[in-house]
Amino acid sequence: MVQVLQNARALIATRAFSSTSRSFAGQNLTEKIVQKYAVGLPSGKIIKSGDYVSIKPAHCMSHDNSWPVALKFKGLGAKAVKDNRQVVMTLDHDVQNKTEKNLEKYHNIENFAKEQGVDFYPAGRGIGHQIMIEEGYAFPGNLTVASDSHSNTYGGVGALGTPIVRTDAASIWATGQTWWQIPPVAKVELKGRLAKGVTGKDVIVALCGVFNNDEVLNHAIEFTGDHIDELSVDYRLTIANMTTEWGALSGVFPVDDTLINWYKQRLDKLPQPHPRVNAETVQNLIDNKVQADSDAYYSKHLVLDLASLSPYISGPNSVKISNSLADLSAQNLKVNKAYLVSCTNSRLSDIKAAADIVKGHKIAEGVEFYIAAASSNVQKDAEDIGAWKTLLDAGCIPLPAGCGPCIGLGTGLLKEGEIGISATNRNFKGRMGSKDALAYLASPEVVAASAVLGKIGGPEELDGSPVNKSNEILKEVNVIPKPQESSESSATDSTAAATGVEVLEGFPKSIEGELVLCDADNINTDGIYPGKYTYQDDVPREKMAEVCMENYDAEFGSKTNAGDIIISGFNFGTGSSREQAATAILARDMKLVVAGSFGNIFSRNSINNALLTLEIPDLINMLREKYRDSPKELTRRTGWFLNWNVETATVTVRDGKDGEVVLQQKVGELGTNLQEIIVKGGLEGWVKSQL
């Protein structure tokens, strides 16, 4: 990864990982699972991080975006889903919306699912990720994708779950396959045992907060640890779910006895014979555990001492900020709204934990505490044990099983000036309501206690006890050098580079424009394209152009012109899987974005929609130095012009269109295969041409 950054590799070119001389190293768990689901490999090919592969995932889930995917699918000229056992559709995001328009969309999705014979779960059945786990679609050792950024959740049950975008989903429906580049893989070691009162949510909030310098950005994560078997499956699901917010593409826990026993218990809950979770599949799981090889290579090794953790809270308005419960409790921050909803922390154990906290209490005056089970099955189980009634008796406000306020839809959104504390996964500015509200993330126990106290606080305060002081979190980061490439491989690479890049007819030999500096790291997809437009499927191009970047900077539209090139910081495009974050930039007639680094989902959406991207960390650092002593501007015209010569794979930046050269360096080569996707207008056009 260091080599990638130093050479300012293009995101749309192959990462600097070679498999030519790594045969001595075994495969990690991620590579093994991908190997199983890769198609079209040469005989004997052992895949490694950095390789581009075609994959045929076990399952592909889509939710409310199923209808836009279906329209793409039809637009490809496809008639029938290639494998209707591969595809799953769930309705979960906007389930409170009873408008004629939304109900028509839901009706269209259901009819399409019936016509194609794919498995369909209606609004109210639950959140798609929970259904994928409950019903055994995401299963230990398999590769399951979804057109949603929280597909990482499946790693909690030992599956490799990773997000795709709508165009990818349509391609899978049509062909059964899509493309994936295996990312660098990081080992995250969870040492020791959790103290009493510390939960899985505290683990991932701490990880996001203390390793907040993009240590795992665009990595696959594999969790290990000497006592990892003591982490419940529900804790694992929570941790895996929020590896998305940590910047990772996946987060996989091992297949161990804890997980196998969980599946044995599932056999009693599911009607048998079940097509995916039955005695035979569980026995096969026992007999054929998928594990990493002892000599597998990991690009990084991160260590977190669980015994050093206390309850932690994320925010405000960023998962990269984590505060101890003790520190925030002392600030007496009044809470207006509390939430126990979403695919992160609305399983039975979470609901029971919250109910145990509020039992015998009432929700504080002036606080609204919203609850929604992860699925109808979870709600029924919570009702059966009395936990649901306990929460209602305390004054909680029930919502249907679904996403709702977590995605900024439906009842209970944050208003200007309010403070919310939530057991969800994201607290991006403006995501759960007003951009002038403050949102914090915490465990179900802390959320419930805060709702009763009327301020951010812990369960012990309900009995008049003070919150214990927090410990210093103990952590380590080790970057592991890559195995050396052979001299033969290096010579081959040098020869290829010397020949120059073939440029296809219809693809520009160079791209040029003035750099417009959006000086921030972690600009998320909500900032690029507001969430309130995401599930409106008929937003015209002009409107998309108008609202582009408005949640980041309301002045962006007035400061930029067609043909400009956005230059931004690190992890640009982090967050949700909405492809409109790329198409909104294209709607402004901007063809290229340059950044220190990109969120992987954004870069995937960019390729699929014909938006070019380049990683040039030196350039953003130079501009930040140039304006270091200037007044802060969110969007700034720089007067610097960038020219990307595709044939020579060289970027030249001048001060003024014909002025002095301030930077010139090689970038990754843009091969003809990816040029062809861009020429065809994106992946959808390319697939259509292939069909």
Automatic annotation (TrEMBL):
GO terms for cellular component: mitochondrion. Binds 1 [4Fe-4S] cluster per subunit. Its main location: mitochondrion. SUPFAM superfamilies: Aconitase iron-sulfur domain (SSF53732), LeuD/IlvD-like (SSF52016). Signal peptide: none annotated. It catalyses: (2R,3S)-homoisocitrate = cis-homoaconitate + H2O. The keyword Metal-binding applies. CDD domains: Homoaconitase_Swivel. Pathway: Amino-acid biosynthesis; L-lysine biosynthesis via AAA pathway; L-alpha-aminoadipate from 2-oxoglutarate: step 3/5. Keywords: Amino-acid biosynthesis, Iron, Iron-sulfur, Lyase, Lysine biosynthesis, Metal-binding, Mitochondrion, Transit peptide. GO terms for molecular function: 4 iron, 4 sulfur cluster binding; homoaconitate hydratase activity; metal ion binding. It is an enzyme of class 4 (lyase). One of its GO terms (biological process) is lysine biosynthetic process via aminoadipic acid. InterPro entries: Acnase/IPM_dHydase_lsu_aba_1/3, Acoase/IPM_deHydtase_lsu_aba, Aconitase/3IPM_dehydase_swvl, Aconitase_4Fe-4S_BS, Aconitase_4Fe-4S_dom, AconitaseA/IPMdHydase_ssu_swvl, Homoaconitase_mito, Homoaconitase_swivel. Residues 32-454 form the Aconitase/3-isopropylmalate dehydratase large subunit alpha/beta/alpha domain. It is found in: Mitochondrion. It comes from the Eukaryota. Belongs to the aconitase/IPM isomerase family. Catalyzes the reversible hydration of cis-homoaconitate to (2R,3S)-homoisocitrate, a step in the alpha-aminoadipate pathway for lysine biosynthesis. This is Homoaconitase, mitochondrial. It comes from Wickerhamomyces pijperi. The lineage of its organism: Eukaryota, Fungi, Dikarya, Ascomycota, Saccharomycotina.
